[in-house]
Design brief:
Layout: E1 2-10, E2 13-22, E3 27-35, E4 46-48, H1 59-63, H2 67-73, E5 76-80
Parallel strand pairs: 4-5
Antiparallel strand pairs: 1-2, 2-3, 3-5
C-alpha cells in the first residue's frame, strides 16, 4: 500500500513524501517525489537520486533545490531513503557509516543483515 505522508506546492508542481511496504526489505520504506507541472497532463521522465551517507528521502529535495530546474525541464525527481529503518539489528545505528543511514545500495548476504538490508533489490 502506498501512503501519502505530505504534499507541498513547489515551482508549479508538487513535492510529495510517501511510505510503502517494501517486499524486498520486509519493512516500511519512504521516498520523495517531485512532480513537475507537466505531470498533470501525462507521463514525464524521471531522475532517481540515490543519496549517500546519513541521508534520508528528505535530504535531496530539501538541500539541492533541484525542483526549479525539474519544473522547467518537465522532469520528476525521485529520492528513496538510503537504508532500512526499524530493522533493530544490534549495532546498526552505532556508526554513521554502517547500518542505518549508511546509503550502500547493495544486498547484504550474511545474517543478520541479509533479512532487511536488501537495498539493491
Amino acid at each position: 500500500m502506498l501512503e501519502l505522508l505530505s504534499s507541498h506546492a513547489c515551482h508549479g508542481g508538487q513535492q510529495r513524501f510517501y511510505r510503502h511496504e517494501s517486499k524486498a526489505i520486509g519493512l516500511p520504506m519512504q521516498f520523495s517525489i517531485y512532480l513537475p507541472p507537466h505531470a498533470q497532463h501525462g507521463r514525464v521522465p524521471a531522475l532517481f537520486y540515490l543519496a549517500g551517507l546519513t541521508c534520508t528521502e528528505e535530504t535531496f529535495p530539501i538541500k539541492a533545490g533541484a525542483q526549479r530546474f525539474a519544473a522547467r525541464l518537465g522532469m520528476a525527481l525521485i529520492a528513496p531513503d538510503t537504508s532500512p529503518r526499524g530493522a533493530n539489528i544490534e549495532g546498526d545505528s552505532e556508526n554513521w557509516d554502517f547500518g542505518v543511514g549508511a546509503g550502500f545500495y547493495v544486498d547484504a548476504t550474511r545474517e543478520p543483515w541479509s533479512k532487511h538490508y536488501q537495498m539493491y533489490s
